[in-house]
């Protein structure tokens, strides 16, 4: 179910906290809808390996399970994707992901902007 509102700053940073979730956002950026869980898990497992290593099937299965049970439902809950656990397909909302990233950038810029002294 897609939310009408935008993720809060806390929800944004909760997504960005996990390296695996950042990999998911990168994958979404470069692949068309819909995304198949098996394809996504295989790619994430490859990215998490040493540069020349090929992940074993058990490693891909472990990534798939983590995505299915934890990461995709969390990202779905804040409205950036629609994850159907039955068909194991993901539809991402690029407009919301872009807005989320812009919000994160604006928040960081605000926090680190040096204001002149009021003296």
What's the arrangement of secondary structure elements?
Layout: H1 9-17, H2 19-30, E1 35-36, H3 37-48, H4 57-77, E2 81-84, E3 89-92, H5 94-112
Antiparallel strand pairs: 1-3, 2-3
Helix pairs in contact: 2-3, 3-4
- Estimate the mean pLDDT confidence: 89
- The 3D shape can be described as globular
The main pleated sheet reads as: 3 strands, antiparallel
User: Ends: how far apart?
Assistant: 51 Å
Overall structural class, as computed from helix and strand content, comes to mainly alpha
Q: Order of strands across the widest beta sheet?
A: 1-3-2
Query: Which range does the strand content fall in?
Result: 5-15%
Q: C-alpha Rg, in Å?
A: 17 Å
Counting DSSP H or I runs of 4 or more residues, the number of helices is 5
Order of helices and strands: HHEHHEEH
Helix content: 55-70%
Q: How many beta-strand runs?
A: 3
Uncertain runs with pLDDT below 50, 5 residues or more? none
What features would you highlight for this structure?
three-stranded antiparallel beta sheet; 119 residues; 5 helices; mainly alpha
Could you explain how this protein is built, in words?
The protein is mainly α and 119 residues long. Helix content is 61%, strand content 8%. The protein has helices at residues 9-17, 19-30, 37-48, 57-77, 94-112, and strands spanning 35-36, 81-84, 89-92. The longest helix is centred in the middle third of the chain and has 21 residues, at 57-77. It is globular. The relative contact order is 0.19.
């Amino acid at each position: 179910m897609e939310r009408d509102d935008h993720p809060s700053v806390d929800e944004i940073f909760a997504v960005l906290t996990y390296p695996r979730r950042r990999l998911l956002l990168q994958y979404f950026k470069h692949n068309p809808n819909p995304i198949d869980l098996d394809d996504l898990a295989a790619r994430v497992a490859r990215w998490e390996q040493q540069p020349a290593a090929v992940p074993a099937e058990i490693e891909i299965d472990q990534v798939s399970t983590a995505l299915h049970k934890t990461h995709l439902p969390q990202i779905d809950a804040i409205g950036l994707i629609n994850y159907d656990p039955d068909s194991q397909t993901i539809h991402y909302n690029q407009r919301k992901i872009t807005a989320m990233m812009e919000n994160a950038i604006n928040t960081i810029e605000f926090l680190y902007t040096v204001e002149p002294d009021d003296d």
